[in-house]
Amino acid sequence: MKDPPLGLNERDFILKAIEERKRLDGRGIYDSRGISVNFGHDRGHVEVAVGNTRVLCQVSGEVVKPSGNRPTEGVLFFNVELSPMASASFEPGRASPLAVQLSRFLEHALKDSRAVDTESLCIVADEKVWSIRVDVHVLDHCGGLAMACSIAAVLGLCHFRRPDVSVVGELVTVHSVLDRDPVPLNVYHMPVCVCVGFLHGGKYLIVDPTWQEERVMDGALTIAMNVHREVCLLSTSGTVPLTSEQILRCTQIASTKVAEVTDFMKKMLAGSTGRPSDIEEAMDTSDILTQSRKQETVAVPPKAAVKTTMTEQSARSAVPDCAKGKVNVVGRGTARIGMGGSSAWSDDDAGSGGETESVSKAKPTAAVKSKTGKRRSAAAKRPTDDGDSDDEVVMMADI
Which helix (H) or strand (E) holds 281? Predict the structure, then answer.
């Protein structure tokens, strides 16, 4: 089913607005529509909206046998599907010329320009390689499908992660995300398609035309370019002959738009790293005992025998008596704690038994020897608190 033709009044209104450098959605002739990106739960699942045009990209991978002419390169396949819910002109179960054209655009812009390293997809030469499939579904067609599909495909390839693979002899093992972290694809650059439409025989041009503007265009130029100003694709359509000056001017406009879009895509990809990792998504926390098992109390018998090792026994035997807190009684009224020597009080200093008792009660007591070795004793009376006096024996020395 073809789109119904535009009325003459509507067609004249659009052309007159473009002559006055105005557009139906309020943009300038060199302005592009706003872009929004939503990343899905699975890796490689991206939804892109350019204005009211919405596309969905899903990237998947599987291990296949390589082709005979390229045994050391992986397979990169692009497919664009136009569903009837996007536009009434799309028929289900049938590849329309527009879908084939968009698939060719993606293949030339991404695969032929070596944007993705296909040699890194090889597992075993001439036996096993990775086949990466990029499926782009158009959800709503409001013009500018080439730009929307290219952005979705690039973001899907950058967001996708393939399982890690190990090769031991002839055994090839594909590890799950619980065993090893998935591996990203090697994307060298990000080609973006920019469409420029020509009206009034090429006199006027507009960037990123809408669906109504595509109906009144006389021709279009689609340019796929990366941020390094490298042209990956150049395709023309319509009946408008283009000069070299017009093509050069279009490439300059496209380079500015591609730089803005590439900056936006890098920011979106950097923001998507904050999402949960693949291991956290694939891990079932209910299987972890430390998180789901309840705490249990273990009863210990009160008279449990504890065996000491030879090292502990030798360490205990080496502890001195002072460390154990043992008190040694040296004589009457004298004791020591620790490894000190004998008491400084001797029988000679104490004298008789009565004097010894008096000396033990004296406060303070001093014994000083003279130069001749003789000693003298003197008694001094010191009043007590209750008025009585006690004899205090002090050994004085002749000087």
Answer: helix 278-282
